[in-house]
Amino acid sequence: MKLNYLTHSTLVIGCLLTACSKEKSLVTHPQEALSVNNNTSLASGALKPLTVITVAGKVSEGFFYDGQGTDARLNSPEGIDLLENGTFYIAENTGNGTRKVTPDYYVSTVNIPPSKNGEKPSGAIRVKVQKDGTINILTRVGAYPFSNIRVFIVKPNGDVITPAFKNDYRYTYLDLEKDPYDDRLWVSGIATDTVNNKSFGILERFTVRNGKIGTETFKTPIDSLTDDNKVSPQITGFFCGYNGVKYIVINGNAIYKLTPSGVFTQIYKSLRFGHETTITGSLTSIVATKDSRTIYIADVSTIRSISNGVTRTLVGPQPGRQYMDGTGNQADVHAKQLALSKDESALYFTDRNALRKLILR
After folding, report:
1. Which residues are CB-contacts of 182 (< 8 A; sequence separation ≥ 6)?
2. Contacting residues for 299 by C-beta, under 8 A, at least 6 apart
3. How many of the other CB atoms lie within 10 Å of CB of 11?
4. For each successive 10 residues of the chain (361 residues), what is the average pLDDT?
5. Whole-prediction pTM value?
6. Number of structural domains the chain divides into
7. Contact 305/296 with Cβ under 8 angstroms?
8. Which structural domain, as residue segments, surrounds residue 91?
9. Are residues 27 and 60 in the same domain?
10. Residue 140 shares a structural domain with residue 7
């Protein structure tokens, strides 16, 4: 009996030690449990809703080389485009990289041919890829307001078009988006009348006509703007809704909608965004669901949703620069651009030096 008792006790203790060892491993390495690395792929159903995982690159470590998932390095990614087949294109704001990320998160570098003048994109802020494979890139250089120096349109056959800006005003482009129905592109920013020293936010077709970029220009009506946005208004971001409405961000601190009939009105008037720590406010990106009932916004160190007029903080804020994946307010996020998955179960976003995923359901 004593021998049996000792054997049983030894087995129990061994099991407990093994369990404790596993628990300790999970507790001491939470980042490894969430991030997608060279040999690991996590199904969203295995994680709680409102969990953030890093799927490509490493938030705290920027550089430039290709690879699988978190073994790759991204260099200040900003613009993001998520195609129907699950492939991502990312514009890097540091250097001249345009990156491609497969649905299983393998990162490669897209070869962008030089223009006829030998120029290549530098400091890319946006990239959008059309159904025929045309790659459209916005670039910027210098200090605020980041004057655009060129637009690159790369055709599937390798031809590169670098159209000039129209010469009626001085244009600065800040965002580029796709229409969900006809695959045409829209671009936004600010136009300045240098003769009369007046500026206004602009939204126009990203179309080349007579060698110049931009047609069908919509100018923000000054009387419709809040007092603090009437001077030098900029359309810093926007989203083309499936309902035909364009959701427009003015100066990073106010959201408007532009209906197909041309009605321009402010929505969510009582909502204040973040800490307004930047020159143009804190709201950096906005996307909407197909039924347009929910809007997601990247707002400083949080990602929030607005549904039926109710605002909800999904993840963040996390004090300091912890660079941590996690659930809810345990995640440290500083999202730049958002992309909603086709089935609307996840938000993808660029953040510092990484591509990250927020599980919604």
Report:
1. none
2. 273, 274, 282, 283, 284
3. 10
4. 40 39 32 46 68 95 90 95 97 86 97 86 91 92 55 94 92 94 94 92 96 96 91 94 96 94 93 59 92 94 93 91 91 96 97 96 93
5. 0.85
6. 2
7. yes
8. 35-359
9. no
10. no
